[in-house]
Write a structure and sequence with these properties.
Shape: globular
Low-confidence stretches: none
Bound molecules: uridine-5'-diphosphate
Strand content: 5-15%
Largest sheet: 7 strands, parallel
Number of helices: 16
Structural class: alpha/beta
Number of strands: 13
CATH topology of the largest domain: Rossmann fold
Length: 463
């Protein structure tokens, strides 16, 4: 056994600057800090002020769009290119800045969307760890494409599902649209595949999932995707409670109307409210927004709907007047706080991976309305594999009609399936808590990582 170090290991986490990426990476930083590691978040100038987490340092790097971030870029392609060029340079400067201090950087934990960060780490002779923010099942699909085992375009029909080792058969509606039609989102597809471009050189690979949830899926591609499952990356308060004061992620790109939501929810009976959110990026079509709105207008359901200001014009004009006695529409909320509120009976979600993991971790039954990309696969697992929700079926134009939405909502809140869904939700919540709790599957992986960091830092100090 090597003698343990004197110098504290220092990790830098580097998220892609979107809400669904900052949250899990920042949470990982907090977990590591709670185990005696110095943790710093490196994020773009535009997002630096949105991140404030106790005990975590924040350092700016540049994506080349310091005033407005992604919105300033012409398109996804030019944004990623600019982030790569400017990000590599400024990340390098950051590593340099700490080099001769008492806390040199030991390891860069980079968002798998930013594989160039590994090259930067290695140029400086420090460790590099890739962190995947998608489910293991989704990572497995892209891994097979990268390996050439699955050719693009992927042909999948409902009577001829996609069969991959370790995964349930996937129907056409269960796979990301752009692998069936690669020309539809070429830049995004290229980015998803670039996650694997240099992965064999990474010192560590992590994913925001846990052994009990997706151990089988992860194992099926372990040779080319040797990820340690360290999730769920949800603030400690909602899981093991071991990190004092860790009640929120500590990052918000929009201002949450927390007090307003909590006050309103306090007036509602237990499990009576449907919480509806489509995350930070999805823009529903006007037609889809109307169908959801009509369903809420026609029913007696109480609801809390997050609709960003830029989306609000899609609501029918009479909507707010017709529903204000039992519904609340807000531009952004503290989602965890809402999901943990006893008045909430179900989570209507777009099935972004963080929302899925949060719903599972807090044991909230879900109504799945996936929109694109990984959300389709996440929805499949929510309904069919974990049994924690019901998925709304789309019509031939890709729209979930109001009758369908209402049917699924009632099914989850009070219908035939509600009891079994609630039971499963409780089961997965307990398993999630177990995974991050002391000696849990994720906790052990994190401890192993911390030990490896200490050994690396110890060795370096002696050199
Ligand atoms: N979120 C939030 N308030 C809201 C809506 C979402 O804090 O009103 C958070 C949510 O808790 C999650 C993240 O935003 O952590 C969204 O990530 P996800 O992967 O679910 O979806 P994306 O926004 O990436 O599509």
């Amino acid at each position: 056994m090597e003698e343990m170090q004197t110098r504290t290991p220092h990790i830098v986490v580097l998220p892609y600057p979107g809400q669904g990426h900052i949250n899990p990476l920042l949470q990982f930083a907090k977990r590591l800090a709670s185990k005696g590691v110095k943790a710093t978040v490196a994020t773009t100038h535009y997002t630096v002020k949105s991140i404030q987490a106790a005990g975590i340092a924040v350092e700016p790097i540049s994506d080349g769009f310091d005033q407005g971030g992604f919105t300033q870029a012409q398109n996804e392609d030019s944004y990623l290119k600019s982030f790569k060029d400017n990000g590599a340079k400024t990340l390098s400067q950051l590593i340099q800045k700490y080099r001769d201090t008492s806390l040199p950087i030991t390891c860069i934990i980079y968002d798998s969307f930013l594989p160039w960060a590994l090259d930067v780490a290695q140029q400086h002779g420090i460790l590099g760890a890739s962190f995947f923010t998608n489910s293991a099942a989704v990572c497995a699909i892209f891994c097979h494409i990268h390996n050439g085992a699955l050719a693009l375009p992927v042909n999948v029909e409902d009577d001829e599902p996609l069969v991959l080792p370790g995964l349930p058969p996937l129907k056409a509606c269960d796979v990301p649209g752009f692998i069936k039609a690669p020309e539809s989102y070429p830049a995004y597809l290229a980015m998803k595949l670039s996650q694997f471009s240099n992965l064999e050189k990474a010192d560590f690979v992590f994913a925001n999932s846990f052994q009990e949830l997706e151990g089988k899926e992860a194992k099926s591609v372990a040779k080319s995707w040797p990820a340690k499952l360290v999730g769920p990356m949800v603030p400690s308060y909602y899981l093991d409670g071991r990190i004092e004061g860790d009640k929120g992620y500590g990052a918000s790109l929009w201002k949450p109307l927390s007090g307003h939501c909590t006050k309103w929810l306090a007036t509602k009976p237990p499990r009576s409210v449907a919480y509806i959110s489509f995350g930070s990026m999805v823009e529903l079509t006007s037609k889809q927004t109307e169908e959801i709105a009509y369903a809420l207008m026609r029913s007696n359901v109480q609801f809390l709907w997050v609709l960003r200001d830029t989306e609000r014009h899609k609501l029918p004009t009479q909507f707010v007047d017709a529903t204000e006695h039992r519904g609340l529409v807000v531009s952004w909320c503290n989602q965890l706080e809402v999901l943990a509120n006893g008045a909430v009976g179900c989570f209507v979600t777009h099935c972004g991976w963080n929302s899925t993991v949060e719903g599972l971790s807090l044991g909230v039954p879900m109504v799945a309305i996936p929109q694109w990309s990984d959300q389709m696969t996440d929805a499949k697992f929510i309904e069919e594999v974990w049994g924690v929700g019901v998925r709304c079926r789309e019509d031939e134009f890709g729209v979930v009609k109001s009758e369908e939405f209402l049917f699924c909502l009632k099914e989850v809140m009070e219908g035939k399936k509600s009891e079994v869904v609630r039971r499963n939700a409780r089961k997965w919540r307990d398993l999630a808590k177990g995974a991050v709790g002391g000696e849990g599957s994720s906790d052990k992986c994190i401890d192993e990582f911390v030990t490896r960091l200490k050994i690396a830092e110890n060795r370096r100090e002696k050199e």
